[in-house]
Every structure is written in structure tokens, then in C-alpha cells.
Amino acid sequence: MGSARLHDEEQHTGIHTGSDVARVNKVRAFRRTSGRSGEQDKHINGVGFLVNKTIQKAILGCLQVSSRLISIRLRAKPFNITVVQVYAPTSDYDEEVIEEFYNQLQLIIVKVNKKDILIIQGDWNAKVGVDALNDWSEYCGPSSNSSTNERGFRLLEFASYNNMTLANTLGTHKESRRWTWHAPNGLHHNQIDYILVQNRFRSSINIPKTRTFPGADIGSDHDLVILNLKIRWKKIKPAKNMRLKFNIEKLKDPSIRETFQVTIGGKFAPLLALEEDTETMTTRFNAIMTETANEVLGKHRHKNKPWVTDDILELCDLRRELKKTKNTERGAREYRELNKTVRNEMRRVKEEWIESQCSEIEDCFNRNNTKRAYQIVNDLTKPRQQKSNNIQDKHGNCLTEKDEISKRWTEYCSELYNHQINGDPTVLNCPQSTNLDDFPILREEIELAIKSLKNGKTPGIDNIPGELIQNGGENMTIFLTRLCNRIWETGEWPSTWTQSLIITLHKKGNIQQCSNYRTISLISHASKVMLKVILNRLTPQAEEIIAAEQAGFRKGRSTTEQIFNLRVLGEKYSQHQQDIYHLFVDFKKAFDRVWHDALWATMHKYNMGQKLIETIRQLYARAGSAVLMQGGVGDWFRTTVGVRQGCPLSPTLFNIFLERIMTDALEDHMGTVSIGGQTIPNLRFADDIDVMAGSEEELMRVVHNLDTASTNYGMEISAEKSKIMTNNTEGIHTPIAVRGQLLETVQHFKYLGSIINEEGSKMEILSRAAQTTAALAKLKTVWQDKNISLKIKQKLLRAIVLSVFLYACETWTLTAELQRRIQALEMRCFRRILGISYRDHITNEEVRRRIRQHLGQYEDLLTTVKRRKLQSYGHTIRSVGLAKTILQGTVRGGRRRGRQRKRWTDNIKEWTERSLAGAQALAHDREGWRDNVYRSTVQRPHDPGGLREQ
């Protein structure tokens, strides 16, 4: 119960909640008891417990920490229960008070027995909203507020660090069962009370019964919140993976690699003169590759840790044998010595592996390959994938038998990839392409395609990893060239090159519902060689017709560029008092709804190569899929709609298809959003589309035209997920709808992973800081590992944790306050890896001194942000494209009177100590600008980040 005002004569009043332990906030009491803590003289704050008499004997202890924190431990089975009651400071308090509160709370948690069921509940004075679900679905649910405030993000940071979930936000409850606090006037309601439960017990929460009970008579402006928890565990033996996995690591040994190439070359040599059909050639290719891999490389030995080498596994086998002789003096001595060797070797290779991963991440950032960098980060920090051994059918019935589950997955995926398209047949009436491109495939094209194959990718139905093809040698390349030319000439694709294996990964929500899973297709790596050859021929033709507004899957373009374009364009429109309206479009299952016939017609309309179109069409005509389950493959089914998942061609094909839709939708729309004399009707990154307009009337026309055009091509706009946003302070006057369903108007929107709103970069930086804290928490065991040096920990922090914060930092506009927040975040991270608590009363300067003592001079986080932003500015000035137009262009209209909001370019002028014209002139000189960036970001003594005392 929240805010219960209890006096002595009231403390024994019966409160009928049906709960064994009830929490009490803001306890006003005149006599001290063991179940209550508070400030006696001021009659403020105070927390306590009301405990059912039947479980009083189960109380193991009650710890009163402060007037805001109290904990109780109860004896229970199978584990004891620790309940912590909190009353967080309100928004009137400074950040220092908030941090002190969370630091005290963290100290309590550290002392809790690891086996205990930990529950933290109380009035957090924080709002967590549905807008946090995209990034925080592991820690909260949809039954929450409409938006998240700053204290809400701090609560989510805390929850993620301790791997806990906000139990009363799970499920779908009506609003009266969500609100926990009501304003005295009865007009305003919020959810600010939460019960946190460890994620390992999340499946034990009875979600329908874990909610607010507004009918409980407790005489307070807070409502009663009850947690219903029933522990249930069942150990299930996982099914064995029936697919053979080769020991690819052996190919790193030059002698073994040479043996593999010689062996495989000898087997392919007799086949080079044969003339066979594509199916026979592919069968021979698959057999030779797998047989040779099995002979030379052998079977991969499972490793629990990725850094474990085969040499260490052999030492472990020897140690296991020596363990049998430990009962003798000599055996015990040999076992101890070998055990010490194993431990030292494990420590060494672990550090080497971590360092190599960090180096690869840093190298990716240096080469501007952010996609690969963040992919490695996600692989290293993502939580273990949730798995369910049963699934629900269409009607919600639980299926437990393996055959039933396999059939259900086949049914679901078959419906997903065989959607009935109801497009307009007239869009298929296009003139045939006159572009003849039937020249044969060259060996150099095959070699280039093989070189571009990525390592570490799961193989398709043929079970041939890409590493085998990359190390196949000359004869294999010649054979593969002949096979690809045969496909090019005849249009006959081998069956294993058209088949995809589908694996399922849980996204969020109910783990038993198929719709809450992401499907990923595995295709043959050998087929990818042919597909990359086709892609290299298709890309130049596609680049000629795809608009500059589309940045998705295009060389030299990135998500950061589109975020920059959107931020700076919105910034200039607001400062010149011009209205801009955004429609963030979401197509329902966009990539899975591409109409094949309309795609071929579109390619003919754009006069692309006839041979390219026909070869791709034949591939799609033979495409089939099956779901790969643990232990087997389900039934095969045809795929008649959508671009193929995992196929190198799919992004480009989708861009071509979407270009036709956008061209038709905006055919008669000139657009009024312009800068520097150039009209910008939309910004796109694949299917992430922001359509812009200068007025409500224009936006309504655009919505109607886009809905009509997309429907003609079999696509459907999701009215639930598409949002409208404007910088007009009066908002939207006329409701805008898609097929009768109103589109929601929002104050902020997450576009390409970055929060866009009218208030600048503050909300995005706060969100990034919270995500960084979550990433920091996922590596808690690493920070506590004394066998890992501080140097390696700092590299991990830089490459894996802080890289999360730095995403799209080039697009931020930094005020003095935001710069201080960035410094505070870095200091919080340093304290974590050094194991320093705020209760140790160690100054920030001392923390920096310790870091420098171990690492020498280092580039702090704020300096990194500055450097990357200045480098981005120089790159944009030297480039030719949309970003440069938006950066240098002007918008009509005048600026309002008074102090102006800081602009993106103001940071450039401030840090370089130059006028904007001077900075632009210098940026054209690459070497001169590089020197200027160094001078602008060099750190002064006692001035981290080059930030002078404010």
C-alpha cells in the first residue's frame, strides 16, 4: 500500500488484501517498531511492512537502512525471500539525492543471499511508459504509462543492472488496473509504484493477478498493488543438434589449410571437363566439400566458452585422467601442477580473445563499418536466448508433442510467406526491358564473390560453411564458375540453392506465441557466390533509379547520415519558425509482402537487364522453405510472396520495389519542405520512411496518396505503428486516418534507433546513457573478475559498453549540461570497473588518476564525442549529397527574438574557435582539418573533454 498515514491507534487495523506481506510508504508514527523506519521529528518519508500473523515466525530479520529503505527476509521453500521496500525521492530533489538513494539500494542488494528470491517494491516516483518497450522489453511490459520520464529511465537502468523486471507492467490490463496514484482533483493518474522481480522468476509471475487493485479501501491517494508469484521449475533435457559441424578453426593452421586445398583440388580436377546439368554438378560439389572437410578437419568439439582452444581441451582431458590418481602423492602433485597450468592458460587465452574482439570492434568503427561493429557488440552482450519447449496453436491451446510443435511452426511460416496479395493488376502492365546483358560470368567475378563471403555464418541446407569455399583453391573456383555459368545460361537453379532453412528467435512477449518470434532464413553459402555475382551486376542499374532520399543498403550511406539529416532539418525549421509535419510510415511486414509479379514488372519498367530479371525470377519460382527445429527439419513449403531472407539480393530488390511505390505516391506531389532550394519530400532507410509536409492539408494528401499507391502494390500501412509528429506547438487540428483508423500524434519518435523530438538531443542522450548502463550490467561478472587486467576491462568498456552510447553521437547538439552528463556517465562506468562505490568517498579526480596510472593518457568519452562530430562535419563538407545540402542550406523565415536554442553548428564554431565560414573553408583541406580536430579536442589539465569550467 502506498502513502498509508498510520498512527499508533491505526496500526493494528485489519486491512483485507489477501496478501501475506504488505508494504507501507510514508509511515507517520510516534513510536518506533521493528517493521517501520522513518524520520520521527519531521513526520516525512518512512517505509514499513504489515506482516500477516501466520508468517511472523518465518521472519529471519528486518533491516532498517534509512527513512526511504527497509528490507525483510522470510524463511520459505524452495528459497528464502528478501523483500525491499523503497520510497524514492520525488522530482523536487537534486540528482545527487537520487544517486545516493540508488547507491544505498544497490548496497542492500549486494548483501542479499544469491539464492534468495529478491523482490523490490515501493513508490519509485518514476514513470515508465510504453515508449520504452523497444529497448527495455526485458525489464518492463505494455501495461504502463504513455511515456517515460527521466526518473523512469533511471529506474530502468537500475532494473537492467540487476536483471529485474517491473512485474506490474506485464500483460495487458485496463487503465484503472495500471494507475497506482491519483491526483487530489481526481483528474490526473499515473503509475509510479512498481514491484521488481528477478528475471529468472519472470515466468513464475501470475500476470493477470499482478496488478493494481483500485477497489481496495486503504484511505490513500495510492492504490494497492499486489504481486502473485508461484515458483515452478522443470528441468528439460535439450534435443541434440543433428547437423554435423566441422572444425573450421583448423583452417587457421597453414599446413592443414594447404592439405585441405590440395585434397579438394585433386577431387575436383577430374570433373572440370565433364558436361552435366546443374543439379548433378551441385550434388558433386556438395559431396566433395563435405567429405574433404570431414577427412581433413574433422568434427567440431563443443566449447562452452568461445575463447577455449583445442590445446586447452586436450589439457583438460589430461587433467581429467590425472584426477583419477589424486589419491597418491605423486598423482596429487602432478594434478595440482597441471591444474595450475590449465588455469593460467585459460586466463591468457581469455584475455587474448577479449582483446581481439575489442580490436575488431575498434577497427570496424575506424573503417566506418558500424553495422559489423554493433553486431559484434550485440553478440557479446545479448542475453541468452529464451526457449520454450511448447508452443500455442492458432486457438491458444498449448502443444507439447514434438510433431505437433513442428507442424504448428510449418503452418505459421507457410501462412507468413504465402500471404494473399490483393494488388491492382494494372500495375503489371509495363513495357518489356530492352536491356540485353547475356555476357557470361567471368572467373574474376566468382573470385570477388568468394572473397566477400563472411566468416562465422551458419550454413544452409547443404551444411557447407563459407570458410570451406574461401579455402577451396583454384580447381574448386573453376568448377564453381562453370556451375554458375550453367545456371546463367539455362535458368535452372539446383534445389539446394533455392531452399531455405528457417530458424526462430524470440523477440519479446509471450514465449509460446509464434507471432512473438523473428524468423531467420539460412541459405546455401555456395548459392551466395552466384547471388553476389548477380548483385554486383544489378547494383549499378539500381543506383540509377533509386532516389537520393533512400539511404538504406547503399554504399557510403548510413543510418547516422539519415538521423543527422532529420535532426538538422527539423532544427532549422523550428528556429526559422516554419512548420514541418512528419509521417513515420510503418508497412506491415514490409519485406515479407513484396508482390513478385509487381517486382518483375517494376524491373522491366526501369529497363534493367533481361537476363538478370529472368534469372532472379527463376530463383523465386523454385524457392522453398522448412523450419529447422532442434533435432530435425519440418515439412517443406513454397514461398510465393516477399523477398528471400538472408539473400544478398533482397535489400536491393526491396529498394527497387519501394522506389516504384514512392514514385507513384508522390507523382503529383511537389512538396513544400525544402532547404537550400532543394525539395525534400521524404527520408528513407529501406522501409523506415519519414514523409514530410509543410502543412496539415499537405500531410493529409500525402497520407492518402501513399496509402493508395502501397495498396495497389499489395503493401499495407500499419495504422497502429505509423505515427505523426510536428514542431507546431498547437499540434494537429484535423485527425488524420488510414482506412478509417486514426494515426497517433506523438511528441517524440525513435527513428533508426535514435529518439527524435522538438527538444533537441537531451532525451536521446538520457536514453543512450540508460542503455549504456544496461550494457555495463550485462558484463558485471567481467568487472568483478580479478583475473582480467584493468587494461582489458577498459578496452571492453570502450569497445562494447561505451560504443552503445556513441551511436549516432555525431548528430547531437551538446549544451553545457549535456556535456556534464556525459562526463558523469563515464565516471560511473570507471567506478564500476574499478570496484569503487560512492560510499567510499573517492573523488572523481582520484578515479581519473587511478585510470591514468594503469592505462596512461586516454581519450575520455566527451572528447570522443567531440572528435567524431568534428570528423563528421569535415566529411560532410567535402562530400556531395543530401547531407551537405541540409547542413549548408537555409530555410525561409526569420528567427524569433531573444536567446536562441543552441544549434548543431554552434558546437563546431565553439570547439574550433572559428566562424562557420572559416570552419567550412578549412574542412576542404583534409590534412588541415585533421590537425584542427586534434587541436580542438586536446585535453587540458583538469579539464576532461576540453570542457572549461562552466
UniProtKB/TrEMBL annotation:
Q: Which residues form the Reverse transcriptase domain?
A: 486-756
- Note the superkingdom of the native organism: Eukaryota
Q: Which GO terms describe its molecular function?
A: catalytic activity
Instruction: List, alphabetically, the PROSITE patterns matched.
Output: RT_POL (PS50878)
Q: CDD domains given for it?
A: L1-EN, RT_nLTR_like
Q: Which SUPFAM superfamilies match?
A: DNA/RNA polymerases, DNase I-like
Kindly list the biological process annotations in GO that this record carries.
Answer: DNA biosynthetic process
Checking PANTHER family in the record gives: REVERSE TRANSCRIPTASE DOMAIN-CONTAINING PROTEIN, RIBONUCLEASE H
Name of the protein described by the UniProt record: Reverse transcriptase domain-containing protein
